[in-house]
Specification:
The chain is mainly α. Helices cover about 80% and strands about 0% of the residues. The mean pLDDT is about 85.
Length: about 220
């Protein structure tokens, strides 16, 4: 599994553009907000966590359609599906999701504190938002793997993947933003929504790869 993770990470970096494109799209979303809502710094600080989460979520969807495309084109996807161990396809999908998150989504988490300064957010708000993104964005990758597996046989499945994944990541978005807001709103506790967000990520880390492996088998049939 470690060798597969390193291989997928090298391939993702070698392909180029994934992480950088996501960061640039993230930056475009964040910089467009002040033009839409006006130069009210207090308002920007209040909506900052939600904007960072929405920008990171949309940026995370950019490369999902290519998650299994190269494996299907070179035939390695068929070798994955005919493995003797029935758990191997789900484990392989899990590792591929981790590699995709490391290459394409982790740069968004790293860039989030800088973009939080653009939104006039406090240090506590920036730290809480970055922490919730670190814990919650892997769930997007696991859900996205299932959507990418459904659309892998389609020539232009990128839009379909986004349509399939967006409704499913709404709970992750809700609890991620709620935890980030609770960190700066004194009466609201930070820990409950944060723990629910972590539980969602752990739950989807199991369900997502299994669903993706089943969808890949169905598309191969």
């Amino acid at each position: 599994m470690l060798a597969l993770f390193l291989r997928e990470t090298r391939l993702g970096i070698r392909a180029g553009g994934g992480g950088l494109t996501g960061v640039l799209f993230f930056l475009a979303v964040v910089t467009a907000v002040p033009f839409a809502v006006g130069p009210d710094l207090n308002l920007l600080a209040r909506i900052g966590p939600a904007i960072l989460w929405i920008g990171a979520l949309l940026s995370s969807l950019l490369g999902l359609d290519r998650l299994f495309q190269a494996d299907r084109e070179d035939g390695s996807l068929d070798a994955l599906l005919i493995a003797r161990d029935r758990h191997m396809p789900a484990l392989t999908v899990f590792v591929k999701c981790l590699a995709h998150w490391t290459v394409s989504v982790l740069p968004l988490v790293v860039a989030a504190p800088l973009f939080g300064l653009f939104m006039n957010m406090s240090a506590v708000g920036i730290g809480a938002t970055a922490l919730t993104l670190l814990v919650g964005t892997p769930a997007i990758a696991f859900i996205g793997a299932a959507g990418a597996a459904v659309a892998v046989a389609l020539p232009r499945g990128g839009v379909l993947v986004s349509v399939l994944v967006l409704p499913l990541v709404v709970p992750v978005l809700i609890f991620g933003v709620s935890a980030a807001y609770a960190a700066v709103a004194e009466p609201n506790p930070f820990l409950p929504p944060f723990l629910i967000l972590a539980a969602l990520t752990l739950f989807l880390a199991v369900i997502g790869p299994i669903a993706a492996a089943a969808a890949l088998r169905y598309s191969a049939d």
